[in-house]
Amino acid sequence: MDDEVKQDVDRMIAFIYYESREKIKELEIEAREKYNTEKARIIDEKTRILRTEFEEKLKLLKHRKVIELSKVRRQQRMAILKEKEHIVSTLFEIVENRLRSTKITKEMCRECPEMLEPVVFCRNDDRSTVKKYINGDIKKIDDEFIGGLVLCSKDGREVCDNSFLTRMDVMKKRYMKHISRCIFERTGTSERLESQCQDG
């Protein structure tokens, strides 16, 4: 009888032990699944946060890049314009220096309108030429006019400014676009300036 009770108790203990082990396995599996699920959720959440931050930073970098490129291009354009202005200014300085040594011709005298004994302003070097073709009171022209002729009627109502300075100013106003096109487009200077700015 005692043996039977002992066997029943042993079987019961073995069953409880077996059930406990199975329950432990189930709990371990469930815990592992929950851990993996939570781990995947956390990784996914962190990944989304990092991706969002990365995209925002990328957008910011792209925006900054656009701004910087625009700034660089604007600086390049300004540098090119400044260099073009310098080239044109240098060109007119060369022309001005040449005009200072250019003498008045017979044709220039005949281009002036006829006036009755006008006051004629010219350089001293041109007095003899002017005297041959224009009958008037000859006086020295101011150096700022570079050279050429300025005629003024006795009453001061009629003035013909044919000085080299005025001719240059008229040429600048009328033909500056054409002059720039000849200098920069036909010679390829614009492309070289742009290349220099980009290299710099």
Write a brief structural summary.
It contains 5 helices and 4 strands; from the N terminus they run ααβαβββαα. By secondary structure, it is α+β, with helices and mostly antiparallel strands.
Structure description:
It is rod-shaped, with a radius of gyration of 48 Å. About 70% of the residues lie in helices and about 10% in strands. The chain is of the alpha+beta class and about 200 residues long. It has a four-stranded mixed beta sheet. The chain is built from five helices and four strands; from the N terminus they run ααβαβββαα. The chain folds into two domains: about 1-100; about 105-185, hypothetical protein PF0899 fold (2-Layer Sandwich), CATH 3.30.2320.30. Helix 3 (about 125-135) links the parallel strand 1 (about 120) and strand 2 (about 135-140). The longest helix has about 100 residues, at about 1-100. Belongs to the V-ATPase E subunit family. InterPro entries: ATPase_E_C, ATPase_V1_Esu. This is V-type H+-transporting ATPase subunit E.
Cα-based radius of gyration, to the nearest Å: 48 Å
- Total count of strands: 4
Helix/strand order, N-terminal first: HHEHEEEHH
State the oligomer: single chain
- The outline comes out as rod-shaped
The chain-level structural class is alpha+beta
- Low-confidence stretches are none
State mean pLDDT (0 to 100 scale). 85
Question: Termini, distance in Å?
Answer: 108 Å
Proportion of strand residues: 5-15%
Helix content: over 70%
Give the tally of structural domains: 2
Pfam families: vATP-synt_E
GO cellular component, one term: proton-transporting two-sector ATPase complex, catalytic domain
Family: Belongs to the V-ATPase E subunit family.
GO molecular function, one term: proton-transporting ATPase activity, rotational mechanism
